[in-house]
Amino acid sequence: MTENALLQVEDLHVSYRVSGGVVEAVRGASLRVAPGEVVAVVGESGSGKSTLAHALIGLLAPNGRRDAGRVLLGGRELTGLPERALREVRGRRVGLVPQDPTVSLNPVRKIGAQVAEVLRTHRLADRRRARLDAVELLARAGLPDPEVRAEQYPHTLSGGMRQRVLIAIAIAAGPELLIADEPTSALDVTVQRQILDHLELLGRESGMAMLLITHDLGVATDRADRLVVMRQGRVVEEGAVADVLRRPAQAYTRTLIDSAPGLGAATASPHPPRHTAPVAGVTNLVREFPLPRVNGRRGVLRAVDRVSFGIGRGETLALVGESGSGKSSTARLLLRLDEPTSGSIHFDGVDVTAVRGRAWRELRRRAQLVYQNPYASLDPRFRVDEVITEPLRAFRVGSPAERRRRAAELVERVALPASVLARKPAELSGGQRQRVAIARALALSPDLVVCDEPVSALDVSVQAQVLELLAELQRDAELSYLFISHDLAVVRRIAHRVGVMRAGRLLELRPTEELFADPAEDYTRELLAAIAGHRRLDRAAG
Hints:
Layout: E1 7-18, E2 21-33, E3 38-43, H1 49-56, E4 64-73, E5 76-77, H2 83-89, E6 94-97, H3 101-104, H4 111-121, H5 127-140, H6 146-149, H7 159-171, E7 177-181, H8 189-206, E8 209-213, H9 217-223, E9 226-231, E10 234-240, H10 241-246, H11 251-259, E11 278-294, E12 297-312, E13 316-321, H12 327-334, E14 342-347, E15 350-351, H13 357-365, E16 367-370, H14 374-377, H15 384-394, H16 400-413, H17 430-442, E17 448-452, H18 460-477, E18 480-484, H19 488-494, E19 497-502, E20 505-511, H20 512-517, H21 522-529, H22 534-541
Parallel strand pairs: 3-8, 3-9, 6-7, 7-8, 13-18, 13-19, 16-17, 17-18
Antiparallel strand pairs: 1-2, 1-4, 4-5, 9-10, 11-12, 11-14, 14-15, 19-20
Helix pairs in contact: 4-5, 4-7, 5-7, 9-22, 11-18, 15-16, 15-17, 16-17
């Protein structure tokens, strides 16, 4: 580690007060980041990565506190600074890309205004200039049609688009250090590469350093100069990326590397299902949305454009493509959470496009959804046991004692300790919340589960466990999945067939191994080339 550190963390201890007592989240962590250097912090969900990032700039939750340790930025100590002084540091000297775009953006303010606010707060532009610069920043962050997006509200954008807005906000004031807490977890691989390329370029041009908090070891090894591995709140290993990959000192680090889908040898897709009778599907599905009026004219966005597919019993069909390609919109239409502009939806061969009332309620019991954003989908007032048993109560399944036993069984199956049953969602890490969401979706033993980025918030070791769990459930009960993902390495592990979407259209739909071995579309080849981890492996091979 260099002595000329921009960021220096010394023996940091952080704890949280929860209903069951005190949880030590960070235990004596120390690290340094030099100007222009990229340091990646990796580890399992709950290892303390995000807590470490938030503690550096005084953004801990109300029940969190720094118990000991120092944080220095450019030689100036940040620990103990009053809130007003920290506000001058945040944004101007240190930019933050939060993990969760839904709860980080103001739902009642337009996107452009939220980006412009950073420039005005730090007196870098007047009102008019800030509006113009905000559009440019959105473009630099990879958002298509930035003039239109600047006039939209967060709820009208896809998860990946919202994440890019957060990146634009973080880089707006030209900070010396960017703390990126899972900055591309919601992005498809091509946009992920564009964003990280851009952040890398900014670092080279301006000397901006980056502390990259990520569960994606492929991204970390592609982009970082050094790796810091955390486990149970402690730094257990650190070193140059190549050294850690080739000679990990800890068995835990070796487990992380072996679990990373983009770093190891290619994993064959699962064997075809025993039966292919369709459980659900769509035919010529179309969904259009009106766009904001610009220069007196209002356009129409066709988010889903004549899409057709069926999902066989016991089959996993994956939809991949860029953020905004129509993957999640298609999934919502299939579950009738949104109404199509035209086309039909069928379940077990029955057209359910217009079904209402009790008949639709019975169908809903057989089809469940795991949302992309677990925090927004879990009731913050409920304990985890109440969250998981909510579908059972809604459909009057089992006695209270039987529901509690079912909840305990499900948390164990998604690799969570039984102690989480008494906690609330806010007391869990992002990855832990996602596992709770998966457990809830499985509570009713449905025939079809729509998984919208179900493992994007999970570290690689738990990701592998959850994917194996989904495969095991499928083998045991012929469960069908519609799997929405931007991570093609993950898709290869679980999907029988893959559909590639772009601009609302289904470009190709083929068996997984055929698509990976010989993609028919140039766009598909771009997606495959952008899988995280290939950059480092290609460099090493060269």
